[in-house]
Amino acid sequence: MSTYLPTLKQLQYLVALHEHGHFGRAAEASFVSQSTLSAGIRELESLLGVTLVERSRRVVRFTALGNQVVEKAHRILREAEELADLVQAAGKPLAGQLRMSVIPTIAPFMLPRFLPRLRKERPELELFLREETSQDAVESLQHGRVDCVLLALPFATGEVEQAHIADDPLYVAFPKDDPRDPPATISADMIDEGRLLLLEDGHCLKEHALAACNRPELRGSATMIGTSLHTLVQMVDNGLGLTMLPQMAVDAGILNGTDVVARPLKSKAASREIALIWRKNSPRRDDFELLAEELRAG
């Protein structure tokens, strides 16, 4: 049996290459030269006595064994990071580096209120933010690229722990001259499926909106085209349809400067839950609980 143990750096290079599919981009993401990254992976293969990556001029393709090694490498790197987190957690609460993913339907509306106060009250915390769709954010959490995720539930998150931040009701947004403009609320049966504009796949708000309406025909007829809530609002402002917005976006002024109005959606499921999630049994659980408290206060 071989006594050679891969280094964490070699595993980091391998994971980066798998993620980016290109030696140059993987090297850039790893902050090393392409030759350094390539040499590290070749040394790993040589000492293990196997081929992990098939190389050609145009394509980087992992072998079946290479894919298995990458999966194991993700777990090893995550465990190594949690070891460092364990030491860090023994120091001051909510201090040091912390990486958080935030979904695009929360980030521009919640963070501007939250971050200035956090920087003032927690000067020893280095918070690195990453904006990703719900699906990508959960994957980043499971692979150890981030420590926690601020997202909206319900959403399939796997084995995680979570802290409730807030409930965020849904609104229906439409041109102000819409003849069906009601005085207070809009029921799901008032929504014209041919005019409903939603975010593209990967954004959990699309699923929340469809679930709130509880009308199966909307899933096949709604237009999933927007890449951001701001884009959807502009489309509505130009008379292209109607959309759904979370209350936090409305309260943050997303409709300012437009001829779009919003009314609460009347439905049993017309709300999403804002939550902070982290990997189960993380040694930094106390930090995440404190961060959740800060978010609730924001």
UniProtKB/TrEMBL annotation:
GO molecular function: DNA binding; DNA-binding transcription factor activity
Top-level division of the source organism's lineage: Bacteria
One GO cellular component term noted in the UniProt record for this chain: protein-DNA complex
Domain HTH lysR-type: 6-63
Alphabetically ordered keywords of this record: DNA-binding, Transcription, Transcription regulation
InterPro entries: LysR_HTH_N (IPR000847), LysR_subst-bd (IPR005119), WH-like_DNA-bd_sf (IPR036388), WH_DNA-bd_sf (IPR036390)
One Pfam family linked to the record: HTH_1
CDD domains membership: PBP2_OxyR
Family: Belongs to the LysR transcriptional regulatory family.
PANTHER family: TRANSCRIPTIONAL DUAL REGULATOR HCAR-RELATED (PTHR30346), TRANSCRIPTIONAL REGULATOR OF OXIDATIVE STRESS OXYR (PTHR30346:SF10)
Name of this protein: Transcriptional regulator
